[in-house]
Amino acid sequence: MGKGLLDLEKHFAFYGAYHSNRINIAIHMVFVWPIFFTALLMLYFTPSLFNLPHLNFFLFGNHFVLVLNFGFLLALIYSVFYVCLDVKAGSLAALLCAICWVASSFIASRLGFSLAWKVVLVAQILCWTVQFIGHGIFEGRAPALLDNLVQAFIMAPFFVLLEVHNFILISRIPLPLQTMLYNWYFKLLQALQTFFGYEPYSGFHAIVQAKIEAEINEWQDQKQKLIS
């Protein structure tokens, strides 16, 4: 169990206390990773940080260049941090970070800066706006970024992956569809053995759920005191 910045149990409980409504959770599942992706897309246009040859690739018959710039550095920092939080789930998140870096580099090279910054601006405004709506209307609580910027910008993509399991449990999804989702993700995430039901360690979800409920109760008590 990690301590401080790497205390997965503590941070996931804090995150869960702000994301207990199934609609709000679904919104974050859809809109958190695009924020990271479009940030990498914009950072593609930053200069190289290392005096190394660029990496040339072909994708769908199109040539593009991978540059070891601030986009690469951001993806690397996120990847290393996630692996430090939890090796198995963190490795999956690190793989997704790498895929985002490569894919965003490809798209950025095709769009060019003059169009890319407009796409990024629209995407960022849309993603952040929808998440604020999710908190304001469905969760009924201000987003965590107002209390913990580090968690909002660095940990959220990782926690979204861990939330997929909880989302299916609390959602009223028909059993056949649940089965299909489980099977689809099982094939995608074989490196994690079985992603759904995965715990960083035995009893993790139970401990975190208890902390989430305690955090929510404390917030509700404080809110009630302010009202009275």
From TrEMBL:
Q: Which residues cross the membrane?
A: 25-45, 57-83, 89-108, 115-138, 150-170
Q: Kindly indicate whether the keyword Nucleotide-binding belongs to this entry.
A: no
Which biological process annotations from GO are given for this protein? sphingoid catabolic process
Q: Name one GO cellular component term.
A: membrane
**Pfam families in UniProt:** Mpo1-like
Please tell me whether the keyword Transmembrane is annotated for this protein. Answer: yes
PANTHER family named among the record's database cross-references: DUF962 DOMAIN PROTEIN (AFU_ORTHOLOGUE AFUA_8G05310), YGL010W-LIKE PROTEIN
This protein's name: Uncharacterized protein
Annotated source species: Lithocarpus litseifolius
